[in-house]
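Below is a concrete protein record.
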Amino acid sequence: MSACIGEPISWLRLERHALGGAADRAVGDHLAACAACARCLDEIRGDLVALPPLAVSPGGEASRPERRAARARWRWLAPAMALAAAAAVALVLWRGGGGGEEAPREDVARVKGVGEVILGVVRERGGVIRHDVRTYAPGDRWKVVVTCPPAASAWVEVAVLDADQIDHPLAPARIGCGNRVAIPGAFSITGDRANRVCVRIAATAAPERAQAPDACVTLRPE
């Protein structure tokens, strides 16, 4: 993937542009001159970022075709969970500032061969797209976005952890790094418990599913 000619256009602004929202002349001018961002826009358009609402069954629970198709449930033993949690904490960045250190961020990791990785999620609800929320309800759909150094590329695998089970709702994907790069596909979450949406990152090949997650965000029911 070629480099951006300046400051890359964020994934969210490109998505709004793809959905035909209010005209943004700055985005249009940038895309006319920047092949890298224009290619990102083409990928967004090809990934159906409009995210049509999920069908809801008569009982009120959202249909989950994406997760059902790729569902793989594992029972984790307590020692394995403890080991995975320790490994995840070890990979999270500590950010220092001012007079002391901040608490570690679960959504940030440093991965060998890739660099700093920041995990994000985007929620679609009734046609409204938001990237600043961490709560879910039946009918919501979610996308995973990753920010990493533009010169790098990475393999990304998404996992959703719900108590004693883990799902892999999306196929592993290789991405060119940048600002809030969308992982292809979308998924939904149902139930009444907190779910952790996590990614495993690798530089040269799809990560092994037995590896501990590199970064996570927690989504809670409303």
The helical segments are 11-18, 25-33, 35-46, 65-69, 78-91. Residues 78-91 form the longest helix (14 residues). Residues 136 and 221 are 5 Å apart (CA to CA).
